[in-house]
Amino acid sequence: MTDHSQRPQATRQSNRRLAIRRWAQRHYFQFYSRCANWTFVQNVAAAPVSWRREHWVLGGAAVTLIVLAGFIVPTFAGATRQDPVPVTYTTVSLDLPQRPLDEADPAIAALAGAEPGADEREWRIVRVQAGQSLSDIFREQGLSPADLQRALDAQDDASALRRIRPGDEFAFDVAADGSLTAMRFDRGDNARVTLQFDGSGVQEAVQDRLVERRVQVAHGVVTRSLFDAGEQAGISDAMVIKLANAFGYDIDFAQDLREGDSFSVIYDEVYREGERLRNGEILAATFINQGKRYTAIRYTNTTGETVYYTEDGRPLRKSFLRTPVEFTRISSKFSTGRKHPVLGYMRAHKGVDYAAPTGTPIRAAGDGKVTFRGWQNGYGNTVIVQHEGKHTTLYGHMSRFANIKVGQRVSQGSTIGYVGATGLATGPHLHYEFRVAGAHRDPLTVTLPPAAPLPAGELARFRQQASPMLAKLQMVDGSRLASSSPRSAGNG
């Protein structure tokens, strides 16, 4: 039998649930209707940005999450870190033996930059300037000429004091009263001399200095000038001049040089106690001029003469220089008929005119004897040199003569006068003539007599010394050719 008293209550609960469901549907329908169009990216072309309440709610929630993460994550990471275990150090005091006061450790002194008993004087360092003499330096330092004379008299060889050069270094130790107590200077590359002045005289001490020569190799190609090629190759202008002098008998660097000419050179540099002191000498070199290859090997023969030789042992030095002056241009060549610039009529020009600044040194073209020094009509100040055999050379228009006189012997390359414009000349230049048995020859084209080769007994010694130099030059030339070849860039 059914209990009908409970039906009204069940009916009321059912009706309440239906009412709640209808209310929720109406409520959430309105919520979803509004949220369906929520977005943070609006069509800015259609309307400007406009934040509604819903936007602010979502934005605030996002910022809150970011702030909470910033606090929670570092705290969690710090909570998982373990503190390092402290390390305990123990200090032990040790008693070291005392070194006797009268002993010194040379090794420690060397590390400190000095040796036991090293010189502790306060030196005045003076470097020689151009045109200075040692007496000038003594006077500038307020030192007595008598001390200079004592220094000169105390040495068997005083050449280092009598013949000083710009760049030489002198050091002086001067007492409080201005008197000289010590003087220091270099005698050659490998000896340092210290003179001690006291009442009993002058005592000399000589310290040997370590000197070494380091061999270098360079290669250059002429593009603008020989000096520019030398700079690109990493050699100094002084070394370039030595290179030009070595090949100067075969190559006229004023008019024979061409773009694309090249050289390879083996030379040394002088180092003293690890520091570069100066340029050394060219030991061997090759020069390719207009496609022709020239070789120079430095060699000292059994008589003590050092000159450059070809590969077959023949001296590069010829009996005559091709050009006896460093000139800027050839202003007039050898000619059988030329209008004279002063006289105004046709006249043979029996020499070559080398234009150069007034005062440029003029060198003897070869060994010989001065047979004339004076004035000649047309030539002005003139020197004539008689050479071995039947050769003579004439040098005209000099501004002044060097310290020579008639009958004096001169060596090849020695200065005999200076460029000028004396006589019939329109500007400073050297007029140079070359005569064979009295007949004039063109100095630019005349065949110069060759120098005698090394004797057979010495030729073997020369070849033994030259062989490693030639091998190194061939290696340098070969590597340069390989690096400039198109194949070297590519396909292997």
Which architecture of the domain at 210-318 and 450-483 does the CATH hierarchy give at level 2? Roll
Helical run tally: 9
Shape by Cα distribution = elongated
- Low-confidence runs (pLDDT<50, min 5 residues)? 40-49, 107-118, 342-346, 486-492
Structural class: alpha+beta
Q: What is the strand content? A: 25-35%
Q: Could you give the count of β-strands?
A: 22
End-to-end Cα distance: 112 Å
Largest beta-sheet details: 10 strands, antiparallel
CATH topology of the domain at 210-318 and 450-483: the name is: Nuclear Transport Factor 2, Chain: A
CATH class group of the domain at 210-318 and 450-483: Alpha Beta
Mean pLDDT: 79
Radius of gyration: 47 Å
Provide the helix percentage.
Answer: 25-40%
Pfam families: Csd3_N2, LysM_OapA, Peptidase_M23
Main location: other
Transmembrane segments: 56-77
Protein name: Metalloendopeptidase-like membrane protein
Give a description of the structure.
- The chain has 492 residues and is of the alpha+beta class.
- It is 26% helix and 30% strand.
- The chain is built from nine helices and 22 strands.
- It has helices at 7-35, 53-79, 106-111, 134-140, 145-153, 159-162, 226-233, 237-247, 456-484; strands at 124-127, 169-174, 180-186, 191-198, 201-208, 211-221, 262-272, 275-289, 292-300, 306-309, 329-332, 335-339, 346-349, 352-355, 361-363, 368-376, 380-387, 391-401, 409-410, 415-419, 429-436, 439-441.
- Strands 11, 14, 15, 16, 17, 18, 19, 20, 21 and 22 form a ten-stranded antiparallel beta sheet that branches.
- The protein is elongated, with a radius of gyration of 47 Å.
- The chain starts with 6 loop residues before the first helix and ends in an 8-residue tail after the last helix.
- Mean pLDDT is 79; it is low at 40-49, 107-118, 342-346 and 486-492.
